[in-house]
Amino acid sequence: MTIAEMVELLVGGLAIGCIYSLIALGLSIIIRATGVLNFAQGEVVMLGAMFGLATYRLVPLPFPALFVAGALFAGVMAVIIELLIYRTLRVRRVPMVNIVISTIAMSILLQNGAQLVWGSEPIAYPRLFALEGLQLGPVRVAPQLVWIVVLALGMMLALQLFLRFTRAGLSVQAVAQDPEAAQLMGINLTRAVASTYGIAGILGGAAGVLLGSMFYASFNMGFLPGIKAFVAATLGGLGSIGGAMLGGIVFGLIETFTATSISTAYKDAVGMVLLIVILLVLPQGFAGAMRRGR
Asked: Is 162 exposed, middle or buried (0-12, 13-18, 19+ CB in 10 A)?
């Protein structure tokens, strides 16, 4: 393998890893705030991709506009689902496992609903990027991959700024640390949890548009990336925001280089093997290992 091929693989792995990081971030902030493992997060990814494609068919907007449209639509849908279903279950004080099961039910319902609306056949995204690669010395990089990395990293930076410097972001973090104490301090738990799901939905929808532009859009496109994002979140440490970002990028690089060095047929199996290894060796992921090392 030449240096140029190595760099091209590195950029490709970084692009898909950034997508996994966005999905894993959504999973992590929901786990931190509510303790719920949201199995429907992959379908939120799918909704973002499908809405972005539907928007383009109505109004041929540039890619950044489609990116924003898909992200916002997925965020709104995530809030609606949380308020109508998950919050209702929490108010009735059902066991946590029942809420987790309800996320599995929502995953299936969203898949079937999308199949009814958009059909069962994969839909190709329009060509939104220049076809000629960017030439950097001997290395040729697809502009699409550069856009994906830039937009995904921009979303991650925006999330960090939101959580640290806005009132809503600080409320979300307070609820994640201690819901009862946050409520005593005057924070509206319903609003904070809904905001958390909205943020996770925006991240998932953004990932969906990026993923759809990279491959295709379909009613079941979010299932496997959702599982892989769970592996990435576990790799980084469930509930850790920094760990989710790092875990997604590391997992994307591992998957890309495995597909090249072994076979593309086994790249999905590698993720499952990695999950088992993490649970056996690093049950708390990178974040837990770093805390123990201090």
From this structure: middle
Q: What is the pLDDT along the chain (294 residues), one digit of tens a residue?
A: 677 778 888 888 999 999 999 999 999 999 988 888 999 999 999 999 999 989 988 888 888 888 899 999 999 999 999 999 999 999 898 999 999 999 999 999 999 999 999 998 998 887 766 666 666 667 777 788 888 899 999 999 999 999 888 888 888 888 888 888 888 888 888 899 999 999 999 999 999 999 998 888 999 999 999 999 998 888 888 778 888 898 899 888 888 887 777 766 677 777 677 777 777 777 666 655 555 555
Sequence-distant (≥ 6) Cβ neighbours of residue 187 within 8 angstroms: 171, 174, 175
What amino acid occupies position 129? F
Q: What is the DSSP string of 116-164?
A: HHH-SS-BPPP--S-SSPEEETTEEE-HHHHHHHHHHHHHHHHHHHHHH
Structural contact between residues 113 and 40, judged by C-beta atoms closer than 8 angstroms: no
pTM of the model: 0.91
Query: What stretches of 36-95 show up as alpha helix (H) in DSSP?
Result: 41-58, 63-81, 87-91
Beta bridge partners of 139: 136
List, in order of start, the domains of the chain with CATH numbers. Answer: 3-288 (1.10.3470)
Q: Are 243 and 233 in contact (CB under 8 A)?
A: yes
Nearest partner of 282 among 240, 234, 248, judged by Cα: 234
- Residue 72 half-sphere exposure toward CB, CA atoms < 13 A: 7
Q: What are phi and psi of 134, to 5 degrees?
A: -80, 120
